[in-house]
Amino acid sequence: MSNKEVKAALKSARDAIRNKQYKEALKHCKAVLKQEKNNYNAWVFIGLAAAELEQPDQAKGAYKKAIELEPNQLLAWQGLANLYEKPNQTDVKGDLADVYQKLLELYESGDKQKWCDVCNKLVELYHQEKKYLEVAETWQKLIRMKQEEGAEKAELHQLWKKMIQLLKDSTRNQDNKTGQLLLTAFEHALHSADTVPGEDHQNLYKDFIQCLSKFPHEVARLEKACDDMMALYPSMTYPLEVLCLHFVQSGTLSEKALHCFSRLLEMDAGSGTGIIGFGIKCLKENKYKEAVKSLTEGLQKTNQCPAAWYYLAEAQMKIHKHRNAVLSCNQALEALGTPEGPNLRWKNLAFQLKAETLIKVADADAAEEAIKALEQIVDGSSDPVISALRGQAYLNKGLMDQASKVSQELLLSHPELAEAHALQGFIHYSQKNYEQAEKSFLNAIERKAGIAEYHQYLGLTYWFMCDETKKDKGKALTQFLKAAKLDSYLGSAFSYLGNYYRDIAGDKSRARGCYKKAFELDETDEESGTAAVNLSVELGDMDTALSILNEVTEKARPGTAKWAWLHRGLYYLRTGQPSQAVVDLQAALRADPKDSNCWESLGEAYFNRGSYSTALKSFRKASELNPELVYSVYRAAALEQILGKYENAIATYQQILKKTENYVPALKG
């Protein structure tokens, strides 16, 4: 076949393809290839015809052969792209991307519109595959091309916005390079916006700040973006909210942070983040009750701040509301979810604080929970302070051997650690080895003098030590005073001071003040409450005694605060108010139905009220619970006599006289 005939055959093949006679086209091409097996156009036409005849493998082979012959010719690459774009072509996306890349290279110096079309297709392909870095880099090439062509600012603005849209899901992957390209796109979009300030620009700024807040390492950029937005939109609270939330989550309490908290509350007094910020400020200023109030209020308004739950737990711990602090730690851990990056630090802190709080609860169940919390701390096994906490939890659980082992290991590896000596002190104290306990607590205080608990335990050690110190409790007093000064919320320190002033110094007034303070700090401390009431009565200050009892009974749930109901009931009984006494003594019995003395007192109240039948039942109940209560048995007999049940009364009197021959009231009865 001559050169002229080859050209004629190729023209016939082209015409056949144009007329959709694909088989005919194949015949012409094969005839050409017999003569010229490396004819580029013949292979391209075979690719075209085979593709239309749904013979993809043959088409692909033909295009690839053509490309092999002429790698920088467009036709075969275009044909291969069309083939791969067909819906029935699966698993070719990687190949298609390579084809698009080659087409971009071939179009770059020529047809700019076609280059842009292919670029759009390539970006779409990468986006479907979630290859965000490739999306970003390819789209940047498109923008660069448009800039070189002198595109208008408005068109470039839309392209940057499109890039943001394409990359909006990429922040989940936390790929640093893609992230930087996304942030760059935001900055270009903001700078190229037409209307500034304006609604679109404002929304774009909000999206930018929200995006920045997902990148922990972009702190400076986030702060600058928030400052810039506040300057442009001074009435908007959003950038200030984000900035304050950032300061809370980062644990930063700089002058700038405090200024932002104040400014946010000035603009929006109901801002949850602002109220939380104020609560953290109170916590750092040792205003713990105000901190608890503000943090609780702020957390009711926003659920975006896991760190705030930690700060709330810390404030609750400072005022010894241990059960509440444990609940707040649990809320913090739940809000933090799966720990990553900065969240891991917060999670470790929350587990540690939870363990410390549970150790203060000081029962075996809480100790078990504390051990579990300590096990959750990442790299906690290498931290000596965590080890000391674990030792205390073992001690609270009664695992003396494990606690001693931890103590010995810590003293060997970290002899300068105050917590190591304190742990040894707690162990000696629990074993009543007071002399060794004294040495350990003094060592702990030498290394860390500001811990109230160390001084309190040293004071208790002196209190229980024998020999000279038993006669002179002055050493104990000194330590209790130090503990109370270091921690003004430590109720137990005031309770021990009350014991000293009452039992050693004989100063009832000062003792009453200490017990009252201890009870105000810890309403579950019934011993201090009772002591404060009793001393008030002894001092003739019934108003103070009643105010304490009234406060407790007003707050008490049914079946609780027996001591307060009983004390007030007995007061009413003594002061001739039997009806009120009945109400209070019944409330006391709801808390403890098996208290025989309380039943006896209730019988007396009913008797004084004139309710003889009910009084009889109460005295009988008292004597059933405790047959040794001769007075109750006598009272029952006397009531039977009053009610005309003479035979029963005689039998009961005789029963008393069998046990106590000379019991005069029974003989008289």
UniProtKB/TrEMBL annotation:
TPR repeats: 40-73, 562-595, 596-629
SMART domains: TPR
Annotated SUPFAM superfamilies: HCP-like, TPR-like
Keyword Translocase carried by entry: no
Alphabetized UniProt keyword annotations: Repeat, TPR repeat
Listed PROSITE patterns: TPR, TPR_REGION
Signal peptide extent: none
Pfam families found in the cross-reference section: TPR_16, TPR_19, TPR_6
InterPro entries to which the protein is assigned, alphabetical: Ski3/TTC37, TPR-like_helical_dom_sf, TPR_rpt
GO CC annotation: Ski complex
The name this protein goes by in its record: TTC37 protein
UniProt source species: Loxia curvirostra
Gene: Ttc37
